[in-house]
């Protein structure tokens, strides 16, 4: 039995002229779930949101909400409501009339719709600004008006397009907690598009990582961060050092892997056999640092020069540049670091245990990275 | 030191506004002052006397012809305004919302400007072979058997004048509307749709209200252009259309400068009131 806020997307493809915006999208979002569509700009996450909202119709595939296909159903009759990145408040209407807009469209009498809009404004703590015009509000207040305007339609699914990107850091953290609170309070489905990894990890029940038009991984925030399926997800989410190599042989149930620069790794083979290419990663916080010298022969030990040290309170981020110019980042607990601190320019060896290595699939398509977020 | 600098700044500011100031003085304030001066001169029916009087104004306000002229002008303004507004809005809407390619938009916009590459009089005279008794339209209508007699109302009539007004002034309504429409954030339209608005509801509740400044500017253009025109009436109206500018033009033709000046001053005040009224209702400044 489908619940009203269930969203199911099946084999959806959207083509704009010669460009494929999204392809092979299969996604099921249960009722009352806070889902984040996460990916760099141009990955198709907003297109997917607009397909769900009905602002675009999919070239192929099906979208159903509450168990019913909504293909062909106009926007505004799907039980969805969209919050725009630009907020899209009507500049000629007061805050109250902005919120009451959908009721006006349904022919609700002026007195009644204003009363109802006022109640919703109270919920987002904007009742004192009901008579202002949108241009007189601050960014955060405009956002609340946009939220109120969406909520008044009693949506089963609220679609949020980069809702926090225009706010400053402080408001962003405050507002994201508030969004999560409202979502839990209403018990409806939220689909939130973002390119900010910590944001997705912090509020989502379900994270969908996208890249160049397809879904790379669907999972809980912990799964996405701790068990990235592909090297793309690991690189995009950050927090991982990603390597590749060829399996040279098996020893004691461990695969011995040779890296392109002659590095020696040992890790669980994960079904790979000698001669296979293998990609894997190690979380930054699983690395340990030791003084330089004698690393070349050891397994799971990479030598390099300390390039930067960033103290972060309870942990220290150490960036190491290897002789082949590639970078490793180690995140060391403060106590461990200060027991044996390394300085910029020092030669160090980063080591890790074989069981901390996670084998990943090579990312398909082009890698579309925007820096390291975590 | 500080005072030298501020006086220098003051001089520099005065220097910068000088060209505009001189131009306004020579071509706006000067002529208006002359007209005001002239309007208070006595006129004995044949010549202007060197004697001051308010008789010209008294005449303007007491003659029934004045009211007739103003009513006729108002009628022409109203019809032209409605038609140019409908046409201008539709064309601007088509250019902004229906066309996707910027190049096509600009090309079609340019096409609207092409008629203005020729002289205004030619533009008017060009209607004659179309609308005349033996003109193309009448010949076609007779040819396909819609009528046996040529339609007389087509040329040298109010219809011909209005037709030329619509042809020329639609652009003045369309351009400001195009400008404000192009600035409407598309998200607003999608947000309205998301809130359950139909296409008509979006038009009335979002697009039209946001177009108000454009409508206001276009209205100011069209009203002042129609009110001040007498060439189109001369060429296409066959002296049958008695507007206020036509009567002024006639007075000037008969060297009746003082009454013409008084008429002009009254018209100027009426126009200023209309423009002032529009500016009060719609905040045009945002669009300038």
Would you give an account of this structure?
- The complex is a heterodimer of chains A (374) and B (288).
- Chain A has ten helices and 20 strands.
- Chain A has 374 residues and is α+β, with helices and mostly antiparallel strands.
- Chain A has two domains: 220 residues, 3-Layer(aba) Sandwich (Rossmann fold), CATH 3.40.50; 130 residues, RNA polymerase II/Efflux pump adaptor protein, barrel-sandwich hybrid domain (OB fold (Dihydrolipoamide Acetyltransferase, E2P)), CATH 2.40.50.100.
- Chain A has a six-stranded mixed sheet, with helices on both faces.
- In chain A, β12 and β13 form a beta hairpin.
- In chain A, α4 packs across α5.
- The C terminus of chain A is likely disordered.
- Chain B is an all-alpha fold and 288 residues long.
- Chain B has two domains: 39 residues; 233 residues, MetI-like fold, CATH 1.10.3720.
- Chain B has 13 helices and two strands; from the N terminus they run αββαααααααααααα.
- In chain B, strands 1-2 form a two-stranded antiparallel ribbon.
- In chain B, α3 packs across α8 and α3 packs across α10.
- The two termini of chain B are 39 Å apart.
- In chain B, 27% of the residues are buried.
- The interface between A and B is medium-sized, with 24 and 18 residues.
């Amino acid at each position: 039995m489908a619940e009203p806020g269930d969203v199911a997307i099946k084999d959806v493809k959207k083509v704009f002229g010669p460009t494929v915006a999204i392809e092979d999208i299969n996604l099921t979002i249960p009722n009352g779930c806070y889902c984040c569509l996460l990916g760099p700009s141009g990955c198709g996450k907003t297109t997917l949101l607009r397909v769900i909202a009905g602002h675009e119709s999919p070239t192929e595939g099906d979208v159903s909400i509450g168990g019913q296909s909504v293909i062909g159903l106009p926007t505004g009759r799907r039980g969805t409501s969209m919050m725009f990145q630009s907020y899209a408040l009507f500049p000629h209407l007061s805050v109250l009339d902005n919120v009451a807009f959908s009721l006006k469209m349904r022919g609700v009498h002026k007195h009644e719709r204003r009363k109802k809009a006022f109640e919703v404004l109270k919920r987002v703590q904007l009742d004192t600004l009901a008579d202002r015009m949108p241009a007189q509000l601050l960014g955060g207040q405009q956002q609340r008006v946009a939220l109120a305007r969406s909520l008044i339609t009693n949506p089963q699914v609220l679609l949020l397009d980069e809702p926090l990107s225009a706010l400053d850091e402080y408001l962003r953290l405050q507002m994201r907690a508030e969004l999560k609170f409202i979502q839990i309070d209403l018990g409806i489905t939220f689909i939130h598009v973002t390119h900010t990894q910590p944001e997705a990890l912090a509020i989502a029940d379900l994270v969908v990582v996208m890249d160049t038009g397809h879904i790379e991984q669907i999972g809980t925030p912990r799964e996405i961060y701790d068990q990235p399926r592909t090297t793309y997800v690991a690189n995009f989410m950050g927090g991982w050092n990603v390597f590749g190599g060829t399996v040279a042989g098996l020893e004691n149930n461990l695969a011995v892997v040779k890296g392109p620069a002659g590095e020696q790794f040992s890790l669980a083979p994960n079904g790979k056999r000698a001669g296979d290419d293998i990609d894997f990663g190690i979380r930054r916080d699983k690395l340990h640092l030791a003084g330089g010298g004698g690393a070349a022969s050891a397994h799971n030990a990479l030598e390099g020069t300390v390039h930067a040290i960033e103290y972060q309170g309870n942990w220290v981020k150490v960036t190491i540049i290897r002789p082949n110019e590639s970078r490793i980042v180690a995140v060391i607990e403060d106590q461990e670091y200060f027991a044996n601190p390394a300085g910029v320019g020092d030669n160090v060896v980063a080591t890790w245990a074989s069981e901390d290595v996670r084998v990943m699939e090579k990312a398909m398509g082009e890698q579309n990275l925007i820096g390291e977020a975590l | 030191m500080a005072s030298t600098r501020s006086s220098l700044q003051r001089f520099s500011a005065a220097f910068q506004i000088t060209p505009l100031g001189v131009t306004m003085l020579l071509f706006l304030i000067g002529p208006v002052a002359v007209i005001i001066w002239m309007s208070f001169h006595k006129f004995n029916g044949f010549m202007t006397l060197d004697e001051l009087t308010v008789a010209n104004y008294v005449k303007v306000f007491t003659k029934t012809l004045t009211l007739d002229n103003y009513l006729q002008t108002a009628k022409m303004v109203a019809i032209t305004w409605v038609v140019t507004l409908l046409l201008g809005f539709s064309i601007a809407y088509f250019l902004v919302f229906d066309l996707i390619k910027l190049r096509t938009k600009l090309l079609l916009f340019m096409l609207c400007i092409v008629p203005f590459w020729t002289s205004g009089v030619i533009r008017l005279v060009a209607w004659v072979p179309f609308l005349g008794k033996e003109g193309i339209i009448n010949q076609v209508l007779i040819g396909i058997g819609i009528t046996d007699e040529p339609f007389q109302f087509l040329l040298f009539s109010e219809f011909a004048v209005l037709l030329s007004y619509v042809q020329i002034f639609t652009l003045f309504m369309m351009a400001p509307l195009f400008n404000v429409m192009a600035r409407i954030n598309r998200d607003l339209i999608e947000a309205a749709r998301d809130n359950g608005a139909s296409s008509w509801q979006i038009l009335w509740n979002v697009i039209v209200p946001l177009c108000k400044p454009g409508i206001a500017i276009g209205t100011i253009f069209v009203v002042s252009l129609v009110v001040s025109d007498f060439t189109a009436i001369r060429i296409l109206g066959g002296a049958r259309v008695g507007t206020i500018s036509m009567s002024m033009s006639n007075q000037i033709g008969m060297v009746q400068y003082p009454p013409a000046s008084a008429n002009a001053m009254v018209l100027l005040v009426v126009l200023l009131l209309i423009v002032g009224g529009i500016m009060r209702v719609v905040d045009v400044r945002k669009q300038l």
